[in-house]
Amino acid sequence: MIKLEPRGERSATMAYLSPVLAALLTMLTGLLLFTLLNVDPVEALITILYVPISDTHGIAELCVKTAPILLCAIGLSVVFKAKIWNIGAEGQLLMGGLFGSYIALQLIEAEGFWVLPIVLIAGILGGMFWSGIAAILKVRFHTNEILTTIMMNYIALNILLWAVHGPLKDPEGFNFPESALFGDSALLPVLIEGTRVHFGMALALFAVVAVWVLMSRSFYGFQIKVMGMDAGAARLSGFKEKRLTYFALLLSGGLAGLAGVGEVTGPIGQLIPQISPGYGYAAIIVAFLGRLHPLGILLASLLMALLYMGGEMAQISLGLPLALTGLFQGMLLFYLLACDVLISFRIRLKPRKVKTSTPLTPLASETRG
Amino acid sequence: MDIDLITNILYAMIRTGTPLLIVALGELVCEKSGVLNLGQEGMMLMGAVVGFIVTLLSGSLLLGFILAMVAGVLMSLIFGLITMELSANQVATGLALTIFGTGLSAFIGSEFVGKPIEGLDPVFIPVLTDLPIIGRMLFGQDLIVYLSFILFGAVYWFINYSRPGLVLKAVGENPHAANAIGLPVFKTRYLAIIFGGAMAGLAGGYLSLAYTPLWAENMSAGRGWIALALVVFASWKAERVLLGAWLFGLASILHLVFQGLGFAVSPNLLAILPYLATVVVLVILSSNQTRSRLVAPMSLGNPFHARG
């Protein structure tokens, strides 16, 4: 009989091992799935995990896809540390893309180094605006942020669709739901010549370092962590709970907005309905998988970007549905949650014989927590 | 506005509210036991895709609905195992269930997108259907809508008047006290989770087999999340779930109303209405904190460890 036994304290080793274990279990399930689908499992795994990054072009594309996921996830790591469940990175990303696009289209004829910063700031403000609404609703009206941020994802998507079908549609675009192409001054510069790796990746890496410093070296970061661990203790210490909530939500919204504007001014170059294939949702998985730690999140973002590319590759060369990516994402999160039980519990194959001379009443001894 | 338009709007309101009602009733029972399952959206999508594929291949709507419910139950059991046996965080696990269900349903449904099936037909009840205004609304619907009326009655009676309903509420309010007097906390919560899964599966099946008889990726379009908000809106009372589901049904079809009245508004902007209504309702209801705390099941979202 398998039995879970409390460890008594959290195992740090298991906390780091659990994401690795989850990734392995997801791969094993993948092998099983491919066998069932009559696809050579080893070939499939190579197609998904190795072929996309087997050349420099592939590695460059990996960076392009990593940037938005990383930006969203690093922002989420701050709110999640504060135990604020911002599920709205997707909507904040879309709003960032929309706001940035609006400004970029206003400045379509403008030239000069100042155009791009203004567009990027507009994108950041778009994301902050969207998460700021959720923050106001949470702080002022105590509204559950999970439900509001989810609803605002759907609202943002519909506003984006309205914009590309209406006011921001390219008048010379043959009625396609797309904006005009942005001017060159509004586009993120390419970092590595001959690839699509753009300045967004540098911004993302900068954000990772900045959040790392914020969370591990600053008093603000410390307050956020305390608030997440024990809101009562934070309040007793005189930490301003409301201000911290605003700060965390605005920060994560701003970073998601930057991710969005980075997509429209980077690899896309115009506003289209499909800015994001669910990067904001993938970032939730990345944040958990990376243990809310900047370095872990960087690694998890790379893995998630690879999953996106692998899904596309599997569709092209193996004829598997593109939804494979979403399926693997979901499995990864499930396995992670299941493996996380090993952080506070250890598995015993046989129940240990308890030798107590004064047995407690059975019900009371069984009840805990 | 003429009588025909009102009749049609009322009819569409109930029809659109039905999947919301079914999934919200399931979540209501689940939350009454103290379990918050945010995976409604994922379970609905699995119900929708499984129901659709089964009906397409077998030609039987009944089989489609049954297996849609089975799919929902299986999904809810994953949630149950991870939150109950491994005491994982209910919020994270529910989210995972939605992400997983979205991915899995898109994966197995990819070959079936856009294929047509014969959807569920309305069953007119003689004489009553011809009543003015409310005839079509209450007696000119399909069988699942009638079933949703029965389900509402059953859940209402179960929660308010039955002994097992009392056990359910006791477990949700204080699982430790319930355990101490010998009530089966784990069994109750499992059954509640399974009921929630079956209802979400049925609601999903309704979408792909009756409401719009086809399968499309992500076709539940946030209804699972709206249902979660509905339960809050309803202050965990079955009769208010019914009212709320129908009101949200109305909010979702307001574009018909606007068209009927001759307004030209962007369909994308009108599509925002149900989501916006959800946010507004949540804000109004949760601004009074004391009240929110009193009406919610006390142990909602907290794991229970009874097997040390």
Could you write a compact summary of the structure shown?
By secondary structure, chain A is mainly α.
Helix percentage of chain A: 55-70%
Strand order of the largest sheet of chain A: 1-2
Structural shape of chain B: globular
Major sheet attributes of chain B? none
β-sheet strand percentage of chain A: under 5%
Quickly give the structural class of chain A.
mainly alpha
Average of per-residue pLDDT values of chain B:
87
The amount of helix of chain B comes to over 70%
Supply the CATH class of chain B: Mainly Alpha
Fill in the CATH topology of the largest domain in chain A: ABC transporter involved in vitamin B12 uptake, BtuC
- Average per-residue pLDDT of chain A, rounded, comes to 88
The end-to-end distance of chain B, rounded to whole angstroms, is 64 Å
Total domains of chain A, how many? 2
The first-level CATH class name of the largest domain in chain A? Mainly Alpha
For the sheet with most strands of chain A, the description reads:
2 strands, antiparallel
Number of strands of chain A: 2
Distance between the termini of chain A: 23 Å
Order of helical and strand elements of chain B:
HHHHHHHHHHHHHHH
User: Strand pairing plus helix content of chain B: what structural class?
Assistant: mainly alpha
Please work out how many helical segments of chain A DSSP would assign. Answer: 15
The largest inter-chain interface, given as chain pair and residues per side, is: A-B, 53 and 58 residues
